[in-house]
Design brief:
Blueprint lengths: L2 H18 L4 H4 L5 H8 L3 H17 L3 H9 L1 H18 L4 H29 L4 H29 L4 H6 L2 H18 L23 H28 L4 H14 L1 H11 L5 H21 L5 H26 L3 H19 L1 H11 L4 H25 L6
Length: 395
């Protein structure tokens, strides 16, 4: 690229990374502190389970708003607004128990909409290297998740072991991301006044789009497994005999171990003939990791978690790549992404909630992990169907 096109591509890349780095640590920074949050706000085990399920539930509920925001504000202005809302919600949610839940609703809705809009940036401004930039985007997710999980406890201790400040402090990097979105957004728009990156309105209903439902199923299955583990992995590790001081680091380890896969898998998925093989590998690794986490000796737990990190990061990267490569055109990318992620996340909301309720009813964690392994089998079937429905990047 040269001239304005090169400038637009650089700005789009910065915006993609800024969004990717912002949409996981508001969630993973909470998981290692669930016990402290429960004590500080006097929440029951069920209330904590509800709190952890709110973001994923909002991922589904808020998704239909994404195309509306783009049509009203334009793509980059919508992203800037959502980052601002995310920062304010993160700052204010620890004030009182009521704001903890209300703020988590706003956090979940903002993250959902940001995740839906990011593929449209890739499809519009970075399509020539869509697989690579999808990988960069999903890798930034992993960095964000690992950062939140790894730094949550140290930040808690550094701030005098006060839960409120430890949760509110994560608003600072979100404000920086918002500033970057504002600064580079106009370059992504090509300097237009409208602040919008959209094309002619599609005539065909998005619900009739080829590959929509397999992609939705694949996205939902991988998200259910991921958010189940994001919410409960430290608790599972402690229940299986791990040192409580190390449990939060195991969650960070899962994200770190998956970073290479989150970059490589979407990049390779740009070659249509490799997609089915990548999907099969991701699903089978998820099954191995889940069974290992539930039944292997405690000394091997880091190995099982590393396998899960590779599997889940690959699956998420592939799900975003499938959205980019399967959506009919640029104009329908936001709508395709909204439906597949919205319905997928709606089903995945059971991930954080149901395991907690099952364990409270007497089901063991190994049995819960076997149930998640069954979900990975469903992921495999949906993934193969999605790959067959997708198209080459140039299509």
């Amino acid at each position: 690229m040269s001239g304005p096109s090169r400038s637009q591509g650089i700005a789009a890349g910065i915006l993609v990374v800024a969004v990717g780095l912002s949409v996981r640590y508001p969630i993973t920074s909470v998981s290692p502190l669930l016990g402290e949050i429960g004590d500080a706000y006097r929440l029951s085990h069920t209330a904590i389970a509800v709190l952890t399920s709110i973001p994923v539930l909002l991922f589904g509920i808020a998704s239909p708003l994404a195309p509306v925001l783009v049509s009203r504000l334009g793509l980059t202005r919508a992203i800037s607004l959502l980052l601002a809302v995310l920062a304010v919600a993160t700052l204010l949610r620890p004030l009182v128990p009521a704001s903890l839940f209300i703020g988590t609703v706003a956090v979940g809705a903002s993250i959902a909409l940001l995740g839906i809009l990011a593929p449209q940036i890739i499809r519009h401004s970075l399509s020539a290297r869509g697989g690579f930039w999808t990988g960069v985007y999903t890798t930034s997710f992993g960095v964000s998740a690992a950062t939140g999980a790894a730094l949550s406890i140290p930040l808690f201790h550094a701030l005098g072991e006060h839960v409120g400040p430890a949760l509110a402090a994560w608003a600072v990097p979100l404000l920086i991301a918002c500033a970057l979105a504002i600064a580079f957004g106009r370059r992504v728009d090509g300097g237009g006044r409208s602040g919008t990156v959209v094309t002619a309105q599609p005539r065909e209903s998005i619900f009739a789009a080829r590959g929509l439902w397999p992609v939705t199923g694949f996205f939902g299955c991988q998200a259910l497994i991921y958010f189940s583990l994001t919410a409960w992995l430290p608790t599972i590790a402690i229940a299986r005999g791990a040192d409580p001081a190390q449990a939060g680091l195991l969650l960070a380890w899962m994200s770190i171990a998956g970073l290479p896969a989150s970059l490589i898998a979407p990049s390779f998925a740009s070659r249509a003939r490799w997609r089915i093989g990548l999907i099969v590998a991701a699903a089978l690794l998820a099954i191995v990791g889940l069974v290992g986490l539930g039944f292997a000796p405690v000394a091997l737990m880091p190995v099982a978690i590393a396998i899960l990190g590779v599997a889940l990061s690959s699956a998420f990267g592939l799900s975003i790549a499938l959205i980019v490569f399967t959506s009919p055109n640029v104009a329908q990318t936001a709508a395709f992404s909204a439906v597949s992620q919205g319905i997928g996340y709606g089903g995945a909301a059971a991930g954080p909630l149901v395991p907690g309720l099952l364990v409270e009813a007497g089901v063991t964690w190994p049995a819960v992990l076997l149930m998640l392994a069954a979900v990975a089998l469903c992921e495999l079937g949906f993934g193969i169907a999605s790959a067959r429905a997708s198209r080459p990047p140039s299509a």
